[in-house]
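## Example record

The block below lists the input lines for one assembly entry, exactly as stored, with component labels intact.
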Amino acid sequence: MNSGVAQSPIVSISQVTKDYTLGKVVVPALRGVDLQVHPGEFISIAGPSGSGKTTLLNLIGCVDTATAGVVRVAGQDTKQLSERQLTNLRLHTIGFIFQSFNLVSVLSVFQNVEFPLLLQRKLDKVQRRERVMQLLEQVGLAHHAKHRPNELSGGQRQRVAVARALVTRPQLVLADEPTANLDSVTGQNIIDLMKELNQKEGTTFIFSTHDAKVMNHANAVVRLADGKILDRLTPAEATRAMAAGAEAH
Amino acid sequence: MFQLFLIAFRNLGTHRRRTLLLGGAIAGVTTLLVILMGLSTGMKESMLRSATTLATGHVNVAGFYKVTAGQAAPVVTGYPKIIEQIRQDVPELDYVVQRGRGWAKLVSDTAAMQVGVGGIDVQNEPGFRRVVMVKEGSLDALSRPGTLLIFEKQAKKLGVKVGDTLTIVAPTMRGTSNTVDVTVGAIAANVGMMSDFNVFLHAATLRSLYQLRDDTTGAILVYLKDLSQVPHVQARLRQSLEKAGHILMDNDPRAFWFKFEVVNREGWTGQKLDITNWEDEISFISWTLTALNSLTGVLIFVLLVIIGVGIMNTLWIAIRERTREIGTLRAIGMQRRRVLLMFLFEAMTLGALGTLAGATVGLGVCLGVNAANVTMPDVVAVFIMSDKLNLAVNAGSVIGAMVFITGCTTLISLIPSFLAARLKPVTAMHHIG
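Predicted C-alpha cells for the full assembly:
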C-alpha cells in the first residue's frame, strides 16, 4: 500500500540528534537521523535494545523534543509548536499503541476507547457511541465493551489500545513494540489487525520491533543501530541482513 | 468533564482503605466544626435571649443625672415623654419597657450578697415572662409592691424560699444607705452568668428605695421586631432625641456601670442620655463567645493543617502510582489543564463526600444532645448562659462549613495536581514504579 509515496511525507526527519543527560554524562540516543514516511505506509523500525527505536518514536509522536535537527509531522515543525499545540497535534493527528497497553484501569473498555473522542469534542454522544462500537467490532471486542481492562487478557487489552489509537481516525499511528508483551499467536493477530486497518483506512503505521516475524508484515523496515539509521529495506532484505549480521557476530 | 469526575470517583473507590482513612479524617473535622458552631450559635442564642430580656433591650435609652459634678446616678428623668417619642420615631418597635437600676446589698438572716437590682413593672414585660422560668412562687407576685424575684442560686446562697423576707441596703448619692424590707415573691431557674448578680424588684419599691420621682427610671428598653434594624434605630434615636432637646453622651459601647468613673470625672451637671445597644451592654460577657469562636478557629486550623498534609501525601502517592497513566493521557491528547482538573476533582470529591458524612454525623450529635436535654455543671452554665446544653444548628452554617472544608481540601491539592499536570509525557510514560 505505497500509493501515497508521491504525496508529501507525513513524517519528515532531518539530521535529528537526541542526547540524554544522566548526571554529568551525556548519552547520545540518536545521531543525525534522516527519515521520511509517506501517508499509508506500514513501516517497521527494527533494531536491538538501546538502538534508539523508542526515542525515535517519541520524537515522531511529539511527546519529546529533539536536541538538534528538524522533526516535521503532518507538515508542522514540532520545534516551533507550543506545548498546547503539540498536545492538539497528538490528539488530532496521531494515535498511540504502547507496549504495556497503558489503558485507564478505572474506565471500561468502551470508556477507554471513547476517551480521545471526548477530548476532541467533535462528535455528539450518539456519534461517539457509533464510532466506538464500530471500532470495538472491528477489533472483535464489542461484547466486552463494559468490561474493565483488568478483566481482559493481554491480547484483548492490546486490541482495546488499537481501537483507542484509531478512534479519532488519525493520519498516523505509532506503536512501540506492540507485540512485546504478548504471546506469538496474539502478537500475530495484533499485527494482522493493524495491517488490515492500514489497508482499509489508509492509516500510516510506524511500529518498532526486534522480532523478525513481526517486521515481515511491514512495507519497509528501517534498521537502527547505535542511534543511526543503517538502511531502509524490504522485509525480506531486512531478514537476510539480520541473519547475516547474526552469523557474522 | 463527566469522564474526569468518573476517573476521580472510581480511583477513590479503587483505593478504598486510603479513601476511608482520609475521608474519615475530613468527616471528623467537619463533625467537630458543626458541633462547635452549634455550641457557639446556641450560646449566642441563649445569650441574646437571656441578656436582652434580663439586662438590656435591643436598644437602650439610659443615661446619668448629676446633682453635682462628681455625683452621677444612672437614671432617666421624665421617661414617659421619651417613651412617647420612641413610639413615634421607631416603626420597627415590638414593645418598649422601663426598668429601674440599682446596686444594693441583699441581706438574709444567714447571708448577704451584692446584686444589681432591676425595678420592673411585670405586667408590661411580655419578653420577661417568656425567658424567666419560675421554679417557686409566681411572676404575678411581682406586681405587688415590696416583692422581689431572685434566682435559684441566690436563694440557695441566701438560704431563703418564697415568702421569706430580705433586706435591701442601697447606698445613696448623699453617702447614706437606704433600706427596705422585701418579700421573696418568686424564685426563677438560673440563666447562666445573668442570674449571678441580678434580682428584680417591683418598680415603685425601687423608686421609693432611692427616693426617686414617679417619672424617673433607670433605662428605657426598646425591643424591635427585627434585630438587624438595631444600628438604624440607634442612629435615628440619637438624632431625634437630640433634636427634641435632650443632651446625649458620646457613644461608648460598654455596659452602663463601666461608665460611672468617666461620667463622675466630667464637669457637667443635670441629665444626659446615653443610647446603647444590647451588644454594648453585654460586652463584658460576650468575650466567652469570642473565646469559643477563637478556640474553634484555632482547633479547626490545626486539624485542617493535619488533613492538608494527609491529602497532599495521598495525592503524591496517587500521582506516583498513576504517573504512567498521566503520561498516557497526555500522549493521547489531554491538555495539562485537564490533568490538573482530574486530580482536583479527586480531592474535591473526597472532600465533598467526607464533609457530607461529617455534617450528617455532626447534625445527628447536635439533635441528640438537644433531645437529651443535657444539664450542664454550674461552672459551664455560667459561660454558656444556660443550664441546659443547647447546640443550635442552621442549614446555612452547616453548608458553609462543608463548602469551606471541601474548598480547603481542593486548594491544598492544587500543588501536587499542578506538578502532575507539568509532567512531560515522555517522562511520565516511562516512569517505573
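Chain B has two domains: 2-50+286-429, 58-281. Chain B has a mean pLDDT of 86.
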